[in-house]
Write a structure and sequence with these properties.
Elements lengths: L9 H14 L3 H48 L4
Helix pairs in contact: 1-2
Length: 78
């Protein structure tokens, strides 16, 4: 495990210490969990954005295919 040194505003560190005490975990564990949470949120947001971009790219084609299926369903001799 790598050691990292960071500078934090006093009020942010006090708040982190308070929450860590409430959770009965060391400060380092609290900060580690905070980073893990933010990383997970960022990864999920990036995944969602990639899916939405892919969806936008295929939307026009999907609408065309849906229109073809609708035409077939409505055709009496299909």
């Amino acid at each position: 495990m790598t050691t990292v040194s960071i500078r934090l505003p006093d009020d942010l560190l006090k708040e982190a210490d308070k929450h860590a005490r409430e959770l009965h975990i060391p400060r380092a564990e609290y900060i580690r969990r905070a980073i893990e949470t933010l990383n997970a949120e960022r990864t999920a947001r990036q995944r969602r954005d990639r899916i939405m971009n892919a969806s936008r790219r295929v939307r026009a084609e999907s609408m065309r295919v849906n229109a073809e299926f609708s035409a077939i369903e409505d055709a009496p001799n299909a």
